[in-house]
Amino acid sequence: MCPFSHTPAEPGAAGPASGKPESIVHEERAQLDFSQSMSYGDYLQLDAILTAQKPLSPAHDEMLFIVQHQTSELWMKLMLHELRAAIGHIAQDELQMAFKMLARVSKIMEQLVHAWDVLATMTPPEYSAMRPYLGQSSGFQSYQYRSIEFALGNKNRAMLKPHEHRADLLAQVQAAYEAPSLYDEALRLLARRGIPVPASHTERDWTLPYAESDGVEQAWLTVYRAPDKHWDLYQLGEELTDLEDAFRLWRFRHVTTVERVIGFKRGTGGTGGVSYLRKMLDVVLFPEIWKLRTDL
User: How far apart are CA 244 and CA 221, in angstroms?
Assistant: First the structure.
C-alpha cells in the first residue's frame, strides 16, 4: 500500500490525514522530483540572481541597499522592454498594442515609487555605516535609467560620458539618445493623421533636447477639442499624461527619500544630491499636453 494512501472517509467525516499539508500535496499530485526536469529556480536563474548580492561593508543594512537597487534595475529592464516596443508600435500606427504597453510602464513606475518606502526605513546612521564602501558608485550612473530618460525625450549628451568605459553599455545608451523618443513618434503620428504639426518637430536632430512649441500645442488642442473624432489620439495623449504623472511621482519619492536618509550631503556620484534631484523635478517631458489643460 502506498504510504500516502488512505481509506476514503464516510461522507461528511474527515479522513485521518485529510487537511494535513503533506496529504494535500500528494492529493493534488504536485511534482516533487526535479532531478530530470526544469524547476522554478532553474527557469528564473535564481542561483545567479540570489548570489548577486555582495555586501562590501560589515553593515547589516547594506543588503537592503543592494536589493533595493537591483530590483529597481530589474523593473527598469522591463520598462525599457515595454517602452521600446510601444515606440515601435506607435511608429507603425498600432495604437491599441502601444496603449497596453504604456499602461504597463505606468504600473511599473508605481512599483518603483513604492520601493522607496522600503529604502526609507534606512536611517542616517545606518547609511553612514556603509557609505564609505560605495566609492563613486551612484544611481546617477544607471545606464538603464538613462536609456529610459532618453526614450522619454530628456536628451542630454553629457550623460553619455559615464558609460564610455564600457563600449557595450555606451552603445545601448547612445542608441536611445539618437533615436526618436516616445513623444517624437507621437507627434509624427499626429502629422500622419493630417493634424498640422510643425516640421521642426517631425523631422529634426533627435539628439537635441525637446523644445516646447505653440504649434505642437495647437495640434494637441485639435485632438482634445474633438475627442470623439480623434479618439485614439486623444487616448494616446492621456496615456502620455498618465506616464509622466507616474514618472514625476517616482522622481519626487526619490528626492524625498534621499533627503530623509542623507540630508543635503553630496551624492556619491559627485552631484549635489538633493539639490540635483530637485532640479530634475522641473523637467517636463510632454509640455504641450500639460499646457493645453489651461488653454482648452
Answer: 18
In tens digits, the chain (296 residues) has pLDDT values of: 444 444 444 444 444 445 688 888 888 888 888 898 999 999 999 999 999 999 999 999 999 999 999 999 999 999 999 999 999 999 999 999 999 999 999 999 999 999 999 999 999 999 999 999 999 888 888 999 999 999 999 999 999 999 999 999 999 999 999 999 999 999 999 999 999 999 999 999 999 999 999 999 999 999 999 999 999 999 999 999 999 999 999 999 989 988 898 887 877 777 777 887 888 888 899 999 999 999 99
Residue 257: all three cell numbers together: 527619500
What's the per-residue H, E or C state across 149-197? HHHCCCCCHHHHHHHCCCHHHHHHHHHHHHCCCHHHHHHHHHHHCCCCC
CA nearest to 162, candidates 65, 74, 258, 269: 269
As a whole number of angstroms, the distance between CA 199 and CA 195 comes to: 12
Q: Which three cell numbers stand for residue 106?
A: 505606468
Q: 247: alpha, beta or left, given left = phi > 0 and alpha = psi -120 to 50? A: alpha
Output the pTM of the full model: 0.87
The grid coordinates of residue 8 equal: 476514503
Amino acid at 25: V
Longest dimension (CA), the chain: 82
